[in-house]
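User: Can you predict the 3D structure of RagB/SusD domain-containing protein? Sequence below.
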Amino acid sequence: MKRAIYLLIILFFGVTSCEPYFSGLDIKNEYDPDIETVMGDINQYPSLIGGAYNNWWHHMLGAYDGDTWILATNSDAFTAGAGNWNLQVYYYRRGYEKPMIPNSDKNAGFPRTLWYNHYSKISTVRNMLATIAEKGMVYKEDNEDRTYKVLANCYFLMGAFYTELSLLFDQCFLITEDSDIQSITADDIRPASEAQSLALSYLDKCIEICNTHNFTNFSGMMPSDIVGNNVKLRQFANFMAARAIAYHPRTKQEYSSVDWNRVKKYISDGLAQDVKATLPLQGWDEWSYAAASWPGGNQWGRVGMRVINMMAYPGDPGAIWPLPTDFGQGQTLPEAQSPDYRLGTDFIYYPDVNTPTGGLSYDGYSKYSSYALKRFSETGQQSGEGDLYFFTKAESDLLYAEAALQTNETAKAVQLVNLTRVNRGHLNDITDTSTKDKIMEAIYYERFVECGYAYTATPFYDRRRTPIDKFQLTTRSFRQLPIPILELSFYDLESYSFGGEQERYEEYEF
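Assistant: Sure. Here are the predicted structure tokens for RagB/SusD domain-containing protein:
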């Protein structure tokens, strides 16, 4: 029976490791103190919690490793100018067959980095929870017991981490403060649905504490004071819980199983403001795909022409997607026209080629886009200034609109979808008399414009779950991630994967 040996202690000293957590050997680290020593001072926990929040933001934006960026090209939100991180491999173009995720290569970064980044954060937080429970530790402020503040943040973080694991991977280990790390085996691998349930249980605990205690949160937890008190932390937890349920379906067939009343209960008290950092911020060195696509910068990516095609007038010659196979070197699409005002504000027509590797013209112009991202992209400037977004209030509002529509609150759904559709897009086509199908299509249209360029997993979740056929993932696209082969090999489990021929959806062929 293989036993877990990963030295969780190194995580507290800022060492990043991609070694498996569960490898079958017992190794004692002769130089670092044991976890009990590190965890022994509860007054250090606010700093550890702040680090966990920061790492969550950093890892999910995909800074420097590109793993979440692959989700953006797989969902056609972005196309790639360069081949780094296999970004071009998963962008759809006519006559191209997407491959499976290469989960037979132990050195492949995707999806390995996403897997281990999540478990590194989980290790830190579960150790705090375990030590509090085992030692009866009490955190005090002004000589008053404020342990609930530590618990509320830890529960939120565990819920957020397991939310993302449940949405990204088909199965995973469920490591909690009650887990015996030394006895974990392959039998402890559980389906994503159980990870979702675990995420919701943690988020519910956070929400309960925030409902029963009024408090000002620790400083330095998140930018813009987004979790600055019990009300804001509760709203963020509700938002994450709604995401865990609504985004879980891998196909449109699974969409019908979503409990929309439960989603609505959470999201009705969701985000009240954008989750963003205003840079430069001391100690922050972040780079999102949006920032990497700034028109005056290196342009690692461009806006996927599928989005421009959705926004443009039908048949517009400047919004062809996918490009014909005879569209080759030196050809450029004209500027597209749209009834949506945002085509001129959020996106910029920018046919000039300017990328780190000399052009967007690999294999002709089959991956090319004439549009750069103008919104969410200020941090691509050399000054490093601008707003770096993680989640937007619009995403929360549109999720509320979807839940309202599915629970027969049509007027509420229309009100919420028009917050962006009318106010930013200057579109006035959705009213209380619109059909349910038309309102649903408008909700997803808004999501692809408003929510696809901050955290790049969001359009991936939307495309795989949407009931609107024309918005679905393209054929052969992966719809979830496998446990990395590096982890599987330590349990003598066979490699498996997703995408490619085994996920050919002819009804979504374009």
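The chain is about 40% helix and 5% strand. Confidence is low (pLDDT under 50) at residues 1-31.
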